[in-house]
Amino acid sequence: MTTVLKTEALRREFGALCAVDDVSVEIDSEEVTSIIGPNGAGKTTFYNLLSGRLDPTAGEVFLRGRSGDLENVTGLPPHDIARRGLSRAYQINNNFEGLSVLDNLRVARVSTTDRSTELLSRYHDDAALRESAEDVLELTGLTDVAETEAANLSHGDKRKVEIALSLATDPAVVLLDEPTAGMNPSESEEMVELIKELDETTDTTFVLTEHDIDMVLEISDRILVLHRGELIANGTPDEVMANEDVTTAYLGERQ
Ligand SMILES: Nc1ncnc2c1ncn2[C@@H]1O[C@H](COP(=O)(O)OP(=O)(O)OP(=O)(O)O)[C@@H](O)[C@H]1O
């Protein structure tokens, strides 16, 4: 096992509420890990702590990113954590919806280099840049829509672009937020296949949150279950499905 991301007694309180309660986990670079839990379990807060958007009340986060060493990144700003190799896939914002898919990728590639201030203006015709952006498009199955404005993509392709933008930064870890949300069954299946394929063909480790349990069972090597901020299970899909605490947490949610 190679630990690529690790938390030690990670905790975040909002006033009297403890949204993430002393969570200690290690994410293995060889595994696709899903984080699940009923509404309000603390999944988003946990992601925000990993990516630096929120500071923990206590505890630590370690990342084995570009340096190759497991570094303590607790309290670092999001851009610094991203630069070190942890990428969170975000929805494409309005500024980028007017750009073609390829130009979105170029911007993402440039932003990983020292040339970030120049963005598209000077490097529009940079062949190496175009090629590396095209490589990511090919990896993510987006070559056919390279010249399409992001705003005009199908929902499924927009979600793929989010993953492509993350991959364009050469990350060690990508955090995906409900990658199949809002998709029809065939788009969901395509997304599952894409993530599996990227997991096999790249050095990137994928972590996801997801409400669709069938999708989670299909894609995950390991499942972490949060409930009221606590990590109540950490195991293979079979182990987690057989865990009574997990069933109780989900049944309690439905009552
Ligand atoms: N900024 C905040 N201020 C106060 N309470 C917050 C804040 N952010 C989250 N919480 C609370 O922390 C708890 C965990 O919320 P979080 O959004 O992390 O859960 P979640 O598992 O992502 O839920 P969902 O699946 O519904 O998105 C909830 O009770 C939520 O109301």
Automatic annotation (TrEMBL):
SMART domains: AAA. GO terms for biological process: amino acid transport. GO terms for molecular function: ATP binding; ATP hydrolysis activity. It comes from the Archaea. Keywords: Amino-acid transport, ATP-binding, Nucleotide-binding, Transport. Signal peptide: none annotated. InterPro entries: AAA+_ATPase (IPR003593), ABC_AA/LPS_Transport (IPR051120), ABC_transporter-like_ATP-bd (IPR003439), ABC_transporter-like_CS (IPR017871), BCA_ABC_TP_C (IPR032823), P-loop_NTPase (IPR027417). Residues 5-253 form the ABC transporter domain. GO terms for cellular component: plasma membrane. Probable component of a branched-chain amino-acid transport system. Belongs to the ABC transporter superfamily. This is Probable branched-chain amino acid transport ATP-binding protein LivG.
